[in-house]
Amino acid sequence: MSFRVYKVFRPTFAGEKRWAYYWIEAGKRHLTMVHPETRERFRSRRDIETSLQRLRSDNVSRTNVAFGELWEFLFRRGSPSEVLCHKQRDGRELSDATITQHHQHWTEHIKPEWGKRSLSEATSKTLDAWLWGLDLSNSNRRSVAITMTVILKEARRRGIIDGLPTMSLPAKTRGGRRAVLLLEEVGRLFPAPPVELERIWPADEGDDGGYSYLAAAACSALMFYGGLRPQEARALHRDQVALDLNAVAITRSMDAANTVLAYAKKGDARDPRHRLALLPDRACSILAAWLDHAPADGPVFVAPRQGIIRRELLAARLLAAAAAAGIPTKGRRLSPYSGRYTYQTVVKPFLDRSALTLLMGHTQDSMTDHYDVPHLFERARQMRPIVKQLNEALG
User: Fold this and answer.
1) pTM beyond 0.85
2) Which are the contacts of 238, defined by CB distance < 8 A and separation ≥ 6?
């Protein structure tokens, strides 16, 4: 069994552009310019795609359906499966990042093995053999299994399969925490004299279209001094910066495909999770120095040839800067996300719970606690004012 291949286009009919689709069957081209049920004209590409998703859905039968055929109408805006997930998530749309991840898992891990195989071949035994044969970490293996489970649930809902085969998954574990730098190490990483900052942070050599040392330094300073996530710092635009207020507005982030989104991480169209980050003067001065070289509007951390700075490059620059500053990295998971861990650990003793949660953009106290990884004697120095109160109380 196979689907008809529908093609969307805009022919000129009676001197007017119209939305339409066609398919070829037995060598003959079939054209449709109106909705098959309402007989009304299609108003937009979205309107016609919704109709086509319904047609593809109706073509699925119980016999010999391949994974690739079912996948054709999964996770597309307006498709029956996407609408169902929308309802199941209390009215929230699936995020672009989630849809991108599902498509990535399908393309890289599921389709090569299962794309042309029948859904009836998916048993617990065959699924386990495939899943544990993937050269992936246990965390990524679980993520791929989620995408596969979504496909199988949709097949069961449509009556293609009767039961839902299970997969043996590794135990779910919380990701390891990133390294937290001491305050003295943060100072060495972002020295005040410009000549020292340039010595610490590497730049592209012999490439006028590359990033200067200031780009990586300023982007990293937003994370260590403002608690921004890497995808929020890299997505920063000019209209988010208010250096006269020592603040940046966190109103954008990036998805897995490095597409800039109009909300922070974990946000969506209904709740964009916008918030403010307050920066000390040192971070503002580094950011101001980079803004003198950055585009007059739009994204801040861009280069003429490479575009928006990539996370991989930012991570490499951070490690190189740490080495130049004499900061030990052996046995420490130092990455751009270390900035967020360091920021929260440093400011936690000075802020009440609600203020800290507001600055970090969390909704659960457990996540706020997760980012607190103190060096104990440095935490003791932070708490020195309490010693005076203890002396007065305990004598």
Assistant:
1) no
2) 291, 294, 295, 296, 297, 298, 300
